[in-house]
């Protein structure tokens, strides 16, 4: 049974689920999106008749409606009135207002911390489509099968107990490359720290800087991945994941002066984050995600990706870019023109660079 979740103005699920914060969802041929929240398989759709977003629990059958509703609402942070939040950001004559007008309903998710941590460990040197593939491999090979819907199998994300049993060699055979030891080592570290209970303690820790530091003890986790995990799963809505694209936005729209530097140093990382926090606190990370997505949308069709498999046209993939020590920007999969922070065009190469540069 389809149930009403919220007005459409409160959740634009297509862009929310396709902007690189979650890798648990897929767009189906009937314009529905299906994904996994915990061990629940959930479908979303727009309902024109009621101008609302509706959801249906596809698995498990017979689950109490109140329980499903609570989990879905928690996942999408429905306790926050997004329309009102957008209104506080759209200041008169503010250059950022256009982004909020262009992308209404983009919500920051509250994901399972273990799933979010290991998903973003897979993000190094990757674009969104490739991250999705690796996360799918973790689900299919190591998670529990939940249900088959219209010929498609849906799997839970592996538990920590399942993750710590994975041999590094298997992950390498599956194409995880140098990320394989990151996953194996991080699973062992998390288990020693107390598993989900430890991550829950970080969710309860009010100090975002302390949480960022704590997360960087995991293998393959630098500042940016730590801030992604903090923002998308640990309730740190002031966390700002900074990459070169976010840095460029800061130079262009916040008049950030340090545009000629060749690398994203720790000092610049912190200063760029503070610009967003000073302007949009206490929901700076949420606003940052909207500005980032809106800026990519100028050159990418982010709002209307083609359904997978059956379409001959490939959907454009939003790209996360990083900058190397020699000042070369490397996109993972894109033909868009990229620029130095000072406005000069960059030469595009085919080499990939880690999305979360350990030196940054």
TrEMBL record:
Primary location: nucleus
Superkingdom field: Eukaryota
One record GO biological process: base-excision repair, AP site formation
EC nos: 4.2.99.18
Keywords, sorted A to Z: DNA damage, DNA repair, Glycosidase, Hydrolase, Lyase, Multifunctional enzyme, Nucleus
Catalyses which reaction(s): 2'-deoxyribonucleotide-(2'-deoxyribose 5'-phosphate)-2'-deoxyribonucleotide-DNA = a 3'-end 2'-deoxyribonucleotide-(2,3-dehydro-2,3-deoxyribose 5'-phosphate)-DNA + a 5'-end 5'-phospho-2'-deoxyribonucleoside-DNA + H(+)
Residue ranges annotated for the HhH-GPD domain, each copy included: 122-296
Subcellular location: Nucleus
Coiled coil: none
Matches recorded under CDD domains: ENDO3c
One Pfam family from the record: OGG_N
Region (Disordered) residue spans: 305-360
Molecular functions per Gene Ontology: 8-oxo-7,8-dihydroguanine DNA N-glycosylase activity; class I DNA-(apurinic or apyrimidinic site) endonuclease activity; damaged DNA binding
InterPro entries: DNA_glycosylase, HhH-GPD_domain, HhH_base_excis_C, OGG_N, Oxidative_DNA_repair_enzyme
Gene Ontology CC: one annotated term: nucleus
Name assigned to this protein: DNA-(apurinic or apyrimidinic site) lyase
